UniProtKB/TrEMBL annotation:
Keyword ATP-binding: no
Role noted for this protein: Catalyzes the formation of dTDP-glucose, from dTTP and glucose 1-phosphate, as well as its pyrophosphorolysis.
This protein's encoding gene: rfbA
Designated name of the protein: Glucose-1-phosphate thymidylyltransferase
Keywords: Magnesium, Metal-binding, Nucleotidyltransferase, Transferase
Length: 290
């Protein structure tokens, strides 16, 4: 069964107040593109063309105005509402009917991934038909994240949410490849002391049966989350540096769709025309001229 995608773009972004009091965090700019373009691009690079976008009720119309139905990129977007932010695992309950038994890849709407070989590791995770795959990334401040506890032979012993004494420096990124049982298992997750359905509790079901793989992202990869004002600025500067230095876009769904042959030359040309007054449009025109 074809894997489907989920972008979780709900939440109230309180850590970024006051800038997110009037607009969803995932619609904020990361240099030259809205934040949600970057997780969307990750799912597209994984070959996923059916994607559910989960938003708050009040923000959904803005996302729809920005992304439409996805046809401009050869994908199909459907829209789901998260009435209140009750934890990451809640996304699988909201998306149960959409998934309809299919395996999924869920990406958090504020996560940015970059690196040579990214499509290959995504394809590898997507090809696994059973169990789950998550990605571990070395960070300097693991106490802010869900942290992987490995035993001596590298097997995952546990994933611990925001530990006071982290067992390793490997944080679990906001990208989860799970099999078709995810909604059923998510329904068994009990609210944590903070009242949320924690993703680590869902992953524990997979780990306990030996069906969870943690792939380490090495030095050649960048993983950025944008939960603070500083990290938001850092992400924008990171994308700007890469874009200006290499002359290549980061997180560009138009280019990805074209290179995957999901849209035609004429369709990309039409997109380039829409953005003809800025560097994004000029970049798309340059892709066409290659």
């Amino acid at each position: 069964m074809q894997r489907k995608g989920i972008i979780l773009a709900g939440g109230s972004g309180t850590r970024l107040w006051p800038i997110t009091m009037g607009v969803s965090k995932q619609l904020l700019p990361i240099y030259d593109k809205p934040m949600v373009y970057y997780p969307l691009s990750v799912l597209m690079l994984a070959g996923i063309r059916e994607i559910a976008v989960i938003t708050t009720p009040e923000d959904q119309a803005q996302f729809q105005r920005l992304l439409g139905d996805g046809g401009q990129w050869g994908v199909r977007l459907i829209w789901l509402v998260q009435p209140s932010p009750d934890g990451l695992a809640q996304a699988y309950l909201l998306a149960k009917d959409f998934l309809n038994g299919a395996p999924s890849a869920m990406v958090l709407g504020d996560n940015i991934f970059f690196g040579h070989g990214l499509p290959e590791i995504l394809a590898s995770a997507s090809a696994r038909e059973t169990g789950g795959t998550v990605f571990g990334y070395r960070v300097a401040d693991p106490e802010r994240y869900g942290v992987v506890d490995f035993d001596r032979d590298g097997t995952v012993k546990a994933i611990i949410e925001k530990p006071e004494v982290p067992p390793s420096n490997f944080a679990v990124t906001g990208l989860y490849f799970l099999d078709g049982r995810a909604p059923e298992l998510a329904a068994r997750v009990k609210p944590s002391p903070r009242g949320e359905l924690e993703i680590v509790d869902l992953l524990e079901f997979y780990r306990a049966e030996g069906a969870l793989q943690v792939e380490k992202m090495g030095r050649g990869f960048a993983w950025l989350d944008t939960g603070t004002h500083g990290s938001l600025l850092d992400a924008g500067n990171f994308v700007r540096t890469l874009t200006e230095r290499q002359g290549q876009q980061v997180g560009c769904p138009d280019e990805i769709a074209y290179r995957l042959a999901w849209i035609s030359r004429d369709e990309l040309a039409a997109r380039a025309e829409i953005f003809r007054k800025n560097d994004y449009g000029r970049y798309l025109a340059a892709v066409l001229a290659e």
